[in-house]
Amino acid sequence: MKFENCFSSDLYALAEEIKRETFELDSFNINPYSFVSPSAYDTAWLAMIEDLNTQKPMFQGCLDWILSNQNVEEGLWGNHVDGNGDETLTSTLACVLALRKWNMGSLLVHKGKRYIEKNTENIIGRYYKKGSCPRWLVLMFTGLLELAQQRGLHLFFSTRAKQMINNLFFQRQDIVDREKLLDVGFNRQPLLAYLEVLPSTLYAEIQKDIVDKLNHQDGSLFQSPSATAAALMLTHNKKCLAYLQSLVKRCAHGVPQIYPLNEELIKLSMVNIMDNYGLGEYFGEEVDHFLHETYKNYGNEDVERMPICSKVDQLHKASLEFRMLRMSGFDVLPRSFCWFLNDEEIQEHLKTNIECSFFVMLSVYRATDLMFPGECELEEAREFSRKLLEKSEFINEKMVPSFHIKHEISTPWMARLKHLDHRMWIEDKDSNVFSVGKASLLRIYSDKLTHLASRNFELRQAVYRCEMEDLVKWVKTWGLNDIGFGREKTAYCYFAASSSTSLPFESATNVRTLMAKSGILITVADDFFDEEGSVDELEALTKAVLRWEGEKLKGYGKIIFRALDDIVKETAETCRKLHGSDVTDHLRNIWRETFESWLCEAEWSKKGHIPSMEEYLRNGMISIAAHTIVLPISCLMESCFPQHKLKPGNYDNLTTLLMTVTRLLNDLQSYQKEQEQGKINSVLLHMRSHCSLEIEDSISYIEKIIDSKRRDFVAHALMDEFSDLPKLCKDIHMSFCKVFEMFFNKKNRYDSDTEMLQDIKKALYEPINIRK
């Protein structure tokens, strides 16, 4: 497709531009802080600091940033992504005060004042109805209003807004009376972390506490640039000045809410976002190199000697490293981050600071998705993080995005398809968040990366729609669309094939279409054996497949055989062109085995035969036909696929595990339908052989088997020591397993005519909705 090549070349050019800005041969090329969204609020406080020798701004770059970064349309400063505008209220007022101090930017000051006057009632009003505002907003807004009054900045509010503001001052007084200066409470920083906005009447009595804190730390107050700026203006402390100078040197213009940040965590988060956005093929070489460098230093930190805040950062970083490295096949062990399970101090800190540690717990929970057999530490870490994530839904949603919790806990990682996951991350306003700051979320910032991701997704959609049209034509050509019985699943099969694979996009067209064609044919043939065909018709079709000669077939059997022969010919011919090898006999034998297994099940059903569980699974793991799709596709993608592992009975352990897991997943969601039809499956067989059990007991038994086999499967798919299949082939196995997990997660979505339609629209048709 001509448009595809043009579109694709533009995207690669944009990717090269991002590479030049981000990577060099051996590391990230630029300061990691350049990825972090600046805080207008904290930058404004640094801009207010006066150099006592020159009576000019000590940090001119911060003032220049304010002059250049107002949203001129609305008159605000700050991050509007969080939706409610809370942070923009305090950020805008702080920036207005900074400009007012230096008598600069009068037009910007005017627009900023109008924004504050116009929006205060709306922003505070949302909380006024509930009876109280967030603590940070109470402290910051009231403190800034006092400073505005001292500097002669007159703000005009409505009567109702004035009532709300008076209420905020009462709330602030209650906070100041109730809390001690250095108390660290549930989900909150101590009062001293808000020094810049505390009542000026407190300054005289707290000055000694400020100096003591500065001298015992790195020169900062709780790593807060705004509080530390206030501390410098009050004390002129040299350590405090050195901290701020170091900060401005690293962040020459806009500064973050917290400094210092864990720089390795920033880099890992940036690479993680690239993966979440589906940009692996653009940055594959650079990301691989980065992960190898990460692995060299993996697990070298001395956690025991770290202060509690550093331990929390280390837990976040280590859990993210574990997941990224294990996903890429590196040999990493759970103890690299599960050490926190034996550290009572950090566990207590995490429990009492759920809001601040939300993204840390989310990272821990995601890391436990990749659990291998016998990894009890990961089970314990999963349970611990899950409980905290579930508790966090009751916390301020501005700081704890409940969407992330619901997505992670309600839909298992194995049941999520890559293409839809990429869309979710691109569209989600919080996909670039990596930590929680004093007043809002800390974000990785890269407009170019988001732009590349959205255009790449649109390109994929355009290509997928064209392939879908060709597939519909193929279905009509071979008479599978109006065959008159069973399930019509053309859209479902193509959606699964296109949305699941992580293979190189441009070289995977044959994989997607052949995967979909095989799925469509398997559905039609399975329905023919289950519902439509007579014993004679089923035997005739199976014998024709065994001979691979269908001239004598009639009716439905002939339609199925002709389509089957076309799929095998196309696969074999493509494989011969790509790799020079003839796999025709191997492909035919795999399909022969599959048809024989379907005939076996049909005969069991018609004769009323009840097999043993062993006999059932031996046949059932073939009849589910997962290997029938995966093995031919693997041959297409890898010239060095070991052909002896294409022979029935000689499959790789990874393939066998895939066949077992997919069979049991299907059985869990189809036992009611099969019971009504007088058929058997593993759930019904288990209950039949244990008369005292209820159906729920048998379901639980099969679920435990699936869980065990799934962990074994994941280990085989990710680690070379368990399976010597080429990596691309392992990826295909993993993708297909995720398709089954998606179709049979808690219900049978595949048999529903409507269950998948919304997902299909999102994957193929609906334009992507990018946040501003």
TrEMBL record:
It holds the Pfam family Terpene_synth_C. Residues 215-409 form the Terpene synthase N-terminal domain. Residues 478-712 form the Terpene synthase metal-binding domain. One of its GO terms (biological process) is diterpenoid biosynthetic process. SUPFAM superfamilies: Terpenoid cyclases/Protein prenyltransferases (SSF48239), Terpenoid synthases (SSF48576). GO terms for molecular function: magnesium ion binding; terpene synthase activity. This is (E,E)-geranyllinalool synthase.
